[in-house]
User: What shape does this take?
Amino acid sequence: MLGLGLVLPVLPVYAATFGAGPTRIGVLVALFALLRLAASPFCGRLAARYGERRVLVAGLLLCAASSALTAFASSYGQLLVFRGLGGVGSVLFSVSALAMLLAIAPADQRGRASAVFEAGFLLGGVCGPALGGLLTLVDLSTPFLAYAVLLLAAAALTLAVLRTGRTAGAEPGRDVVGLPVLLRDRRYVVACVAALAQGWVLFGLRSALVPTVVVAWRHDVTWVGWAFTISAVVQTLLIVPAGRLVDRAGRRTAMVTGTGVAAVAIAALVLTDSYAWLVALLCVYAAGSALLNAAPAALIGDVVAGRGGSGVAVFSMCTDVGAVVGPVVVGLVAERVGVPAAFGTGAALLVAAFVASWTLPTVRPMRGVDR
Assistant: This one.
């Protein structure tokens, strides 16, 4: 995530050097998420056949090649192809890493394990853009080369440290839980609904709508960055304690609390008309989001119990669907109905996840046992 944070702010500027206008830049940015979504259904089958470790390394290497080739692209068409390859590699290594993590972590520690995993993503996302800005002082292509080096280092670390053997998460050819069975499990469905709501709010509302609102209040774009940074710091500070709560208080308590707090924060954004209140509500949402970064993943781990297959991939797809569809729908609603209604779409999804979370069983995972 550190490497991705390096390149995301630079990508639009880099594409503009090839004559790309706003529309073509938008296509380039969206392509990454679209190909992540398209490749997701194959992740489970590949992991079940070859093992998460091999798929993880393949994804890292493919993403590294994509980033390095992007640095040496000579046309917009090449940028599209190379960026698309990165989307495929990204979903291969991210889904495999999460599936392996959930398989290895004991049931009573999955919340904390998921929280630490997400904390890595958050820290990389916070630090990456600032470092990327410094690297562009060398050349616009430098962040892409740095990202490739980081991915190669991750692949080397994976090969050196993670071994196949008795670890369920690394074993190819094991029995997996079929998707029809998973969809009959209430825990799995609730986790997927929460993931969809999170993807919608994070990438549709927060990333696409909040900047527009702040600029409409006649604030500089820098103020948007500060709002996001402050809320990200709050979420980073809370995510590990949130993971402990998921394990100690139980999945249901964490899900109900996380979806409830997040829904209230997003609904309240409809009424706010000041920058200070917007930042405060984003921080409240970050508190709920910290729980929603750990609890749904822990639920998925409880359900698949080390036999990931398509289960983890479909869970990941739910977030990607929210990230791809959310910005488009939110933008249309904001234009044709109004900004309050656009915020309402995210609040409605979080309320749906909140109601679904109430139906979860009130059983906490016992040490070494999946419930």
